[in-house]
Amino acid sequence: MHLVYPAVLAALLFCTGLYGVLARRNAILVLMSVELMLNAVNLNLVAFDVWLRDELHAGQALTLFTIAIAAAEIGIGLAIVLQVHRNRGTADVDRLRDLRDDAPDAGSDTERADREEKAEAAA
Amino acid sequence: MSTTTTAVLVPLLPFLGAVAGLLTGRRAPGFVRPLAVLPTLAAAVLAAVVAWRQGGGDAIDAAGRLTPTGSVPIDLALHLDGFAVLVALLVGVVATCVQLYSTAYLRDDPRYPSYAALVSLFTAAMLLVVYSGDLMVLLVGWEIMGICSYFLVGHYWETEAARSASLKAFLVTKLGDVPFLIGILALAADAGTFRINGILTAVTSGGIDHPTLIALLLLAGVAGKSAQFPLHTWLPDAMAGPTPVSALIHAATMVAAGVYFVARLLPLFAASTAALVVLAVMAAVTMVGSGLAALAQDDIKRVLAYSTVGQLGYMTGALAVGDRDAAVFHLVSHGAFKALLFLGAGVIIHAAGTNSLAAMARTGGLAKRIPDAYWTMTVALLALAAIPPFSGFFSKEAVLGAAEHAASGDAKGIPGAAGWLVLAAGLLTALLTAAYATRLWLMAFRGTGPEAADHGKQPAAMNTVLWILFVPTLALGLAAWKLPDWFDGGSLTPTLTTSVLSTGCALAGAIVMYAAWRRTAALAARTPLGAVAADPDAAPYVSEEESIATHEAAYGDIAAAPDPADPGRALLGPLHRHAAAGFHLDAVYSALFVRPTRAAARLARFLDREVVETYVRGTAGAPRLLGEAVRRAQTGNVQTYLSALFAGAVVLAVAAVLVANGA
Amino acid sequence: MTGTGTATLAASTAAHGFLSPTGVEIVFLLVGLVTLGAAVVTVTTKQLVHAALWLVVALGGLAVEYLLLTAEFIAWVQVLIYVGSVVVLLLFGLMLTKAPIGRSPDADSGNRWAALGVAVAAAAALVWVVADAFRTTWIGLDGDAPQGTTKVSGEILFRHWVLPFEALSVLLLAALVGAIVLSRKRGKEEKR
User: Fold this and answer.
1) How far apart are CA A64 and CA A60, in angstroms?
2) Do C114 and B654 make contact, defined as CB atoms within 8 angstroms?
3) Which residues cross the membrane (chain A) (predicted)?
4) Is residue C191 part of a domain?
């Protein structure tokens, strides 16, 4: 069998997963896409292991490890998503924007408004 | 103690007194007065000793060199000839008188310690200038005098007039000092030395390549320091300083430094006919213009200031006709009687509570209140007007005689035109001088109206000083027969022609002024005018400060008063307005220098605010805009970040592959 | 290893062309197409539960590919863990986050076109590089020794990789504990 077939399939699967990670809104769908990317890597590992006829079968061993780690990742990931959903009422990735840098003008506007209110209260 | 050591001590003692006064003045107020008076007195006594030892013989020269200073060496040199020792004696005596007078005049002034120290420092600097045999050392004293003058004119810095006057005095004299310094350097470059003796040797052997240029450059400094046209405008304004300062600096000594300097270097100036003609024109314009301006002034001290300018014009006139004996003779006698006049004016201002002649003309009995000032000032005014037999007559006669000598073509190397110019201007000025001296005397002492308030007897220190200075005023004329031994040896005795002419002019001026006064004095009662100081019983300086501060508010002008009873106004007619303003020279300066400078300042301000600042703002604004742009990218959306990350990774991977394949 | 690779490469260049595929290759291609299609539907469908189900198809397809590559143990592990547990976990997650049943129009975020661009670029770059590099590489599947039987895997796993294997078990334990801690409700705060 040509090595090109599994390698190209792996590449395409990886890119599909990449698209999913970047484009999906629901965090669980993002996790699914991550699984796709991991599996693409696994396919690569297995194919190259077979081709190289490695004595230690490092590729297969690594694939098993990846699967295990992926299982752990999905567990932790889901726990985090559930926690976020419980706290925020949403699991949409693009609505979790606490790291956004707010425009400073808005802040100063409110401060000015606060000052005016205080001045009025004082008057 | 050798003569040289004594001479070194003369400038050194007041200097040490000044340093000690500045250091201890605040902590030990009891020492301030002795520290002010005693070193100056000692310097005066030592100057007398030096003068006696020198005795009009050959010049004594002593020089020491501290360290080599480059191409042209600078020596700490003394040059003691008849001119130096006599002028030093005058400076010492007048400075002592002024220090004594100041102890009473500024008795409660909180700034008296620094004032006295500055006067001492000034005295030291003037003595240094007089004794110095090296132009650079002379320049040091010259500049110290300038800065002391600045501080002392601004002594009443609470008043606007004093502040601006001190700045003006400093700037105008500096305007002359810059060409002066260039001239000294050019002179040293030509002669190869700063020593005055060496320079004079170079002049006689024709070693100076550009005598006219150097002489004109030096003349600029002389005009600034000696208040000659066109740099005289600072002197009348400098009257905003305390009266003793006016007496010492702006009448007797500092302004004489320029004349003294030219006298020292006269052979250099005589080498250039152009310089002599310029000097003569300068002297003539100064004499006549200041005489007219003095007629129109209302402030008694400004009258005296313009009179000083005019008398300095006589001295420069004498120099222009190549007779330094006459110039220095007039310098000495003028120093004595003008110091007396100023100190007397201080007494008058205190007694009358005003510095305005118009107000004094409406006060009766001022002469009875201050008999000492009355008698001494009367004699001093007679000397100023050159009425025989007082000192001013003889010294002025010497000047006019020299001018007549030059005009008749007897003087070697002196252009006859300069002689005629000085003679004509001198005679006209004699008339004007007598006129304004008479006006001052009549308005100050012959006023009619309410009696002057009695503030008690004037302080003894002030009256004593007046009588001390009265002696030379009265008798210095007799020195005309003795002085040629000390000087170059030319005759200083009056000649018949000029005596008759000038005395006639003076008498004519006095009589015309008296007649005018008889006609206008009656008007004084009809136009009430005048303001007197609020604190008549305070120390004299308080009256003066108050009258300076209020003169413009009370009389509408810093120089003149709208007084129809003023005989000067009646005589001058339409000219009065211009004369009062000093012939608008200040306005010319304002148009020539002040306004362009202000415009340049505005331009610089505009360039700084609008152009330079734009770049500064730009350097701040560009990162700010960039920051705004980058902030847009900071959306908080993790997927956007990841997209950018992966895109970058792809680009890097492709680049790596291409590089690895050697593309 | 390199020697073997070059030998295989030299042998395969003459023997195998793309125009005369073997039977295994045909099956691999067909299953690969199904897998890729399922994966694409997974990341594009607007029905969230359907996405999870299509993921099952994709992962199952991959398991078949493993079989075709003679890695049978990996294939069974794939079926067991992914299809059996991971997808079930994901479905639980969907349910617990109250994911809507049916079409949800906002399944894709606004980042979609950028994502598409990045993905296509990455795909083009990767496929180009991979195809360029392994154009002529041949895998001898019907070789002398079996490559991925359970026996072989067990031997290498417990002979050569035993330490990483144990470390992995610790990691799994940690993940287990972490997940429980994270998803546990905090009693006190809830009461407040």
Assistant:
1) 6
2) no
3) 61-82
4) no
Find the CATH number of the domain harbouring C46.
Answer: 1.20.120.1200
Partner-chain residue, chosen from A22, A98, A103, that has the shortest CB–CB distance to B643: A22
What are the pLDDT digits (tens) for B651-662? Answer: 998 899 889 887
C124 and C41 share one domain: yes
C156 shares a domain with C125: no
Q: Which residues of B touch A93 (CB under 8 A)?
A: 637-639
A-C C-beta contacts closer than 8 Å: 272
Residues C161 and C123 in one domain: no
Answer whether residue C21 is part of any domain.
yes
Q: How many CA atoms lie within 13 Å of B54's alpha carbon, on the beta-carbon side?
A: 30
Q: SS3 for B309-327, per residue?
A: HHHHHHHHHHHHCCCHHHH
| DSSP structure class, residue B240 | G
Is C31 found in the same domain as C60?
yes
Q: Between B243 and B539, whose confidence is greater?
A: B243
| C-alpha–C-alpha distance, residues B660 and B252, integer Å | 96
Position B473 pLDDT exceeds 50: yes
Q: Smallest Cβ distance to C156: which of A50, A57, A94? A: A57
Task: Look at strands B60-64 and B76-80 and give their pairing.
Answer: antiparallel
Whether omega before B230 lies within 30 degrees of 0, making that bond cis, reads: yes
Higher-confidence residue of B494 and B165: namely: B165
Task: Report the amino acid identity of residue B576.
Answer: H
One of 1.25.40.10, 1.10.287.3510, 3.30.70.100, 3.30.70.240 is the CATH number of A4-122, namely 1.10.287.3510
* Assigned domain for C192 exists: no
User: Chain C interface, mutation test: which of B637, B638, B651, B654, most C Cβ atoms within 10 Å?
Assistant: B654
pLDDT above 80 for C1? no
**CA–CA dist B209, B188 (Å, integer):** 11
Same-domain pairing of C21 and C95? yes
The per-residue pLDDT for range B62-82, each reduced to its tens digit, is: 877 777 777 777 888 888 888
Structure tokens belonging to residue A50: 């077979």
Are C131 and C173 part of one and the same domain? no
Q: Give CA–CA dist B290/B303, Å, rounded.
A: 9
Paired tokens of A44: 């690569």
Q: How many domains does chain C have?
A: 2
Nearest to A81 among C74, C97, C111 (CB): C97
| Residue C82, in any domain of the structure | yes
Set of chain A residues whose Cβ sits within 8 Å of the Cβ of C59: 35, 39
Judging contacts by C-beta atoms under 8 Å, the chain B residues touching residue A101 are 631, 634, 636
Q: What is the pLDDT of residue C36?
A: 94
- The ipTM estimated for the assembled molecules is 0.83
How confident is the model at residue C191, as a pLDDT?
A: 45
Q: Do C125 and C154 belong together in one domain? A: no
**B630, pLDDT greater than 80:** yes
Q: Do C98 and C158 fall into the same domain?
A: no
- Enter the pTM of the model: 0.68
Q: What is the mean pLDDT of residues B396-403?
A: 86
**Touching check for B658 and chain C: CB below 8 Å?**
no
Domain hosting residue C179, numbered range: 149-186
**Ranges B520-524, C45-49, C119-123, most confident:** C119-123
Residue B191's contacts (CB-CB under 8 Å, 6 or more residues apart) are B198, B199, B202, B203, B207, B208
